[in-house]
Amino acid sequence: MVNKVGQIMVYVNNQDAAKEFWTEKLGFTVISEMDNGEGFRFIEVAPSQQSETSIVLHNKDFVAKMSPELNLGTPSLMFYSDKLDQFYSDLKNKNVTVGELVTMPFGRVFNFADDESNYFAVIEK
Q1: Could you tell me the mean pLDDT of each successive run of 10 residues in the chain, 125 residues long?
Q2: Top-level CATH class of 1-73?
Q3: In CATH, what number does 76-124 get?
Q4: Which of 3, 48, 64, 87 is deepest in the core (most CB within 10 A)?
Q5: Is the entire prediction scored with pTM above 0.90?
């Protein structure tokens, strides 16, 4: 039985740029990094050291070679923010591509793109 989500795998073309995006622009923390020196490297990031769920940034080309059967598409992620207006402004000020801040029946939400044009959403919660 599953009792929580531990890690979400995100496959990226440039791990260093992705790490910079998630830490410098979104304010995430690096939880761990591993590089075996033979091409396998991952970078684990999360909103804080205490987060129950983290994002693991994997090298898309390496994973494609090792496991060609995997779907390497970007998952559709919804983040929560209790300071949505501030977060929205911060991302815009950091030149992150953000969508319009809209009110939906379930709350206010906007999307943003990383440097590889992968889109994610944030809802006020």
Answers
A1: 92 97 97 90 96 96 94 95 97 98 95 97 96
A2: alpha beta
A3: 3.10.180.10
A4: 87
A5: yes
